[in-house]
Every structure is written in structure tokens, then in C-alpha cells.
Amino acid sequence: MLIRFSVANFRSFNEEVVFSMIPGRSRQHENHVIKADSPDGIDVLRMGLLYGANASGKSNLIKAMAFAQKFIVEGVRPKQSIPTEPFRLDPACIEKPSRFEFELIVDGIAYAYGFELDRKSIQSEWLIQIGKSGETSVFERTFCLPNPHIVFGDNLIDDEPFLQFVRRSTRANQLFLTNAIEHNVKIIENVFEWFRTKLAIFSPDSSYRHVEDSLYKTSIFVEYQNSFLKKLNTGIDHVRLDLVPPESIDRITSPLVDGNMALEHIFLNEHFSKSDKKNRRFATLNESGDIEVYDVKTVRMDNLGKEIAFDFGDESDGTQRLIELYPILFISTGLTVVIDELERSLHPNIVRTLLKAVMFETSENQLLVTTHEATLLDLDLLRRDEIWFIEKSPSGASTLYSLEEFKPRHDLDIRKGYLQGRFGAIPVFGNALQLNGEAE
Description:
Strand order of the largest sheet: 2-1-6-7-8-9-10
CATH superfamily of the largest domain: P-loop containing nucleotide triphosphate hydrolases
Strand content: 25-35%
CATH topology of the largest domain: Rossmann fold
Number of helices: 10
């Protein structure tokens, strides 16, 4: 689970901003808090919503998390520049490093992991075990060419000879954490795996492979999702995978392959999926080693009770998004799910229903979303510390703050106050919006 995320000197962020999932003093909605497993553990919130005007920096916060995650998990090639994007409205920032830090909980243990980098190299990197009683360093890296200087904590002392070898093999443009995993260092693997498998970040245009996987693997998922779609009055009776006839497989699988990649390489992770404007297709190898291809279909009933199948692309953008979000929010477990523009193509009542369902029907996932949907600003639905705002300063830098800082009354109409500008983070116009440049 995520405790805090901070970023500095990246895209629209100049000075460091901190987004926190630590509960404030509010005692409202206690079930929105994920309690620590031990007295030394840290409680975290189940949900966080981020509001702000267009171009305020909401998506940039998500992009900062996604950049850091990708750099941790994939890294870059030798001698390749690091694709960081410093704050451009202050010339001094171009030469300064960008900074990223995650505080997270893995297997009941809290860690702070972060790094500073520029386009050429890692300037610093650290992994610290944290708790209410204090902090313990796992490793700390400082900039030193040609090899990084790393100090290892006492819990790594038994492995230090091998770790020194890993240190010397760590490139200037490579994180030690990433290189250590490549060298099979198990003691810090759980932290790396959190970034690889437990942090799920989705942009407004992301396509979610979980749909095909869940339909193929999990019968209980099919049952639950179909019930979910019926409750939301989508008109869909059920979603299914239709097996494509064998004689059509060659024609269908050829577009699935990127360039000249051999077909067998697409099945290294068991399955392969592909979407376009019309279809969602799913390919797998059966027990005999033969390729099977499935199409995702939505099924409605006609007035005679007969099933009528539709291609996935025939559904509205909102219905497609509901089908794609369901396995992320309600089937996967133990994830920190980050969604940019949760409400895209969805009715406000459906968005509210989704959030309620996350709170009361699942206890396994943590959700962070950006949104413009003001109807969610309701203290009967959310806690004050779950609501965050972002806006641009006069210098063009994004700033971040929580509703908790305002300490509003429990009976205050938060939505009305936000739209009136009481909490900032809304668009501000002149006396009139003249698109042709003429005065009113």
C-alpha cells in the first residue's frame, strides 16, 4: 500500500510536493482506513481523490508516478539518456536533478524508497525501513563516478561481499535496486515486486488486459461482472469469450505480431491480447501447444429471449470503461490502483456507485484517482483527508494540498464551496471568454 509519494523538478512540479495517504485527525468513516497489522505499523487511507483545473498538474502527478515505476522496473539501456523532464519555467531547474520518493507498505513492513537523477546519471538513491519507533537504512547511494558509492545497512551485512560486486556493476544511469534484482538479490525483492505487480497506473486511454485474462481464467469473475453490469442498467446480459474458428486464426494472429517478431514469442507470459476500434482479441496456447484465439463479446437478449452478441467495440466508451475497470477494482487484490480521469465517459451516479463499492465491497485495494466530478465532494461519502487539490502558482508550478488543511465543518456543502472557489484549484476566467479576441 502507498503511504506517501513526493516529487520535485519534474514536468509542472518545481519545489517538492507531497501526496499523502496517512489519515488525518478525522474520525469520520473509520472503515476508510486500512489498519496496520502491528503496533509499529502505519495506518493508511483506502482512497484519495485529486481535484484541479485543466492544466493544473493532476495528470503530471500520475505521470511522475508512472515514470518512476517504469524506470524502476525496466530501466534504460547502457549509455542511453534518462528521459526525465525537469521543470522548464525556471532555467535553474534544467541543471538540477529530478527527485522521486515512495513510502510504501510491503508484507506489513514500511519502506521509503527514492532517487534523484538527471538525464545522464543517478545522483542518489535510498531504501529505508520506517516505523513509528524510528528508521533503519537498508542502503544509501551517493553519486560517484565511475561506480556508485553505496553504504549498506546492518540487515545486508552478511551479503555485503556479493552486494559490493553488484554495486560495481551498477551503471551510472541505472538504479541499484533494478540491478540488484537482475543479480537475484532476494532480500530487497519484495520492494521491487511492489512496483512491478502491486502499483497499477492507468491513463485515460489505457487498455486493460485484465478483462481477457479474467474471462479466460476465472468463472467467479464472469458471474460477478455480469451481475455488476446488470445492476448498473447497461442492458448487457453477460460478457463472454467466443472461440474464433481455426480457419480464421492465421488471418487474425498476423496483425497481433509486432513487426517480424516470431509468433511464439508473444506467448512468453501465457497469453496475448490486442485491441482495436472494433475488437478485443485474446490469444493463448492450449494444452496441445496450438494457438487459440478468442473475441470478447457482449451479449444482450432480444424481445424473444434470444442471445444477440455484439463486438466489444460496438459498446459505448462508458460501457467499455466499466467492463475494463471492474477486474482492476474488484477482482485484483492488494493493489494500489491509480486512475487518471476516473469519470471519463461515465455518468456521475455510476462514478459514485463505483467509489461506494470500492469502500464497502472490497477491503483489499487502495485507490487514487484524479477527477473533475464535483458531485463526489460530499463528506457523507468521503473523509476530509481523502480529498486533495492541485493548482498552479503564479510562477507556473503545481502546488498540492489537502482539504484537511481547511478543517471544514462536517455539515458544510463541500461541493458548493469548491465550485465557489473557497478551496482554490478551479479555473479562473476574466470578465468574458472571447474566443475571437474581441472585447465584450
